Fold this sequence. Notes:
- Chain A has helices at 17-38, 41-57, 66-87, 105-112, 114-120, 124-135, 140-147, 151-176.
- Chain A has 187 residues and is an all-alpha fold.
- By secondary structure, chain B is of the alpha+beta class.
- Chain B contains twelve helices and 27 strands.
- Classes of the chains: A mainly alpha (187), B alpha+beta (493).
Amino acid sequence: MGVSGDRKGSRTEPLDTGFERFVASASPALLRSAYLLTGDRGHAEDLVQSALLRTLRRWRSITGSPTSYAFSVLVNLSHDRGRAQRRRPVTAPARELPDRAAPDQLGRLLERAAITQAARRLPRSQREVLACRFLLDLTVAETAATLGLAEGTVKSYTSRALDRMRELLADDARASDGEPSEVRHAD
Amino acid sequence: MLTDEELIDGLHSELAPLRPPADLVERLRAQAGADEGRRRSILGTSRDGRPRRVRYSLGVLAVAAATVLSLAIAVGALVLIGHRGPSPQAARHANRPGGPERAPTLAQLEANFAVLRRPQTAADRAARLICSRPCSEHAIPSLTRLARTLPDGSRVFLSVWRLRTSELHQPPGSYVLREIVVPRHRAAIIAAASIPDVPFVVGGNFYGLPSANVSSNAPLWTAVVPDHVTSVRWTFSCRRGGVPQPCRGRAASSLMAAEVTVSDNVAAARIPGTGRGHAGATFTEWLDTYGREIASFSGAGGGTTFPMLEKSLTARSRLRVTLTAAGLGGIRFGASPARLQQFLDPQLGPANGGYQTVRSCRVDRVLSWPILVDPATGLARTEELELFFGHGHFVGYQYGGSVLAKRGGGRHLRFHAVTAGGLALGDSIRVARGIYGRAFQTSEAQGGSWQVHTAQGTLRGYAYDPSTYGHVSSRSLVASIDAGDVGCPSVTP
Lengths: 187, 493
């Protein structure tokens, strides 16, 4: 039993078998998408868990793709998280706070992953489109419906995101070779 | 140069080691079970979904009937004795400038002490019973508050007095905030002289040091502090005016300090080994939520001016905006951005970055102003007012404290926004409940949040307690005030 299951007052109840199958198949891709949006493994896990729980509450009334539904909840949760973080003061001077939790071995691996880091530096909207199209394998139409965008916008975001990642990777390669590089922060 | 396919494959392979926790399904099961249990307890249904049948005993029914009867008698009595709430005289005084230059006006006192802004309760009104001449001649009844009941049963009242003659080093017509400590066993007091009235006065001659009621071995030290001071640190020593004095107790050999939490604008603690013949309070520090010093006072020199009142209230007096569930000030949702800019630009200057495009559900444009609020104490808070628009119409706003105590992070503006009920940023949940009663609800969602349903709609925001992130208690602070559409809400789709 997990940590939450041991809590006083909580009760373990059977989940819908269809939902369990959905969790097993979709959660890895959702987690990777959440990581792309937050850049923090712990937060990504929290977001996925919350998004799946909310999906479970509406499980029987979801008409379209449950993956799209869960992802749009996840995107909204990540927006809310960003907003909530901005609205609360920090409790210690910034220099005393680490940017994020100390990375574990996997965290370090992800920190070194060049393509992932390039994707993390894209604007949020482009990251959302990348996650939908390439991590969740949604079609252009499904991505447009999930994110509330026009199909043309999805295509242009995808194209711009890939071009920008190429530029960033090239900049990084030049920097590691000791050449001066153009410093541009897209996000 | 990598092709599209290589980039996508690379992203897949780099993120491949990232896998959900093995017990994800178990966690979801447990959380779903807990949610279901909560839902049943709220709806009053049994596990099979049928409404639970509630049986009341005769005793419970009798108590309920007696309560209803006593309430009816109390309401009748209030009507008969002509309870009229704040007197017109008091209301007139609120708008008049204070008499002497340094004495705070009534409006200033209300703006700096949240305890005065909350509605009066029956417990507050009980002070009338214990307050006879001369207190009854000076005290404004509608501005008496029971600030604290201490563990030993002593009650700390705060009372606003309007002086008719020159007293307490103040000229006639001055308003002073007085603290009155009433011991547990005193139910009624015949004369003000017989109560251990702690002579703590917020006025022109304010003393930052706490005062002691030394009737027992562990004297009760109390002090009145304004909003945004969340704790005080008192230092006790055997010195009087900088000169060492013989005294007993621990402080006789070394300095002794106590940090005391503030609640409802009052710091109070029993501190053994202090008081008469022992160590006295010689230094006070006011601390904010983050433990930073806001102001400090030493015993030397006696009275000083009350530090927060003058500058912060001058700053607040320029633009006061009422935040409602239907709009901002007199401007309701649906208004054009030009109308809001016309209203706010003269005071706040042009919006940060202009009329910016965003994409967040029904919100497509945003106007925002960073506001540096410096209450003249060395503590700078950056707040932000964001207005949201959808298809060219005002659809929502968010007013929130944010970021670090960083000087130069925003414009220093004279701006003060409160809800129609009087709730301001930084007020505690306790104050909010005092204003809105049971309609004010909190939730642990999103690291702590609150909402209140008003006649015009719903006001909501984040709650914040730096010591217990995510847990909302009566000490948590209001971190933001929102209404309308503020972008993608997490509860959708």
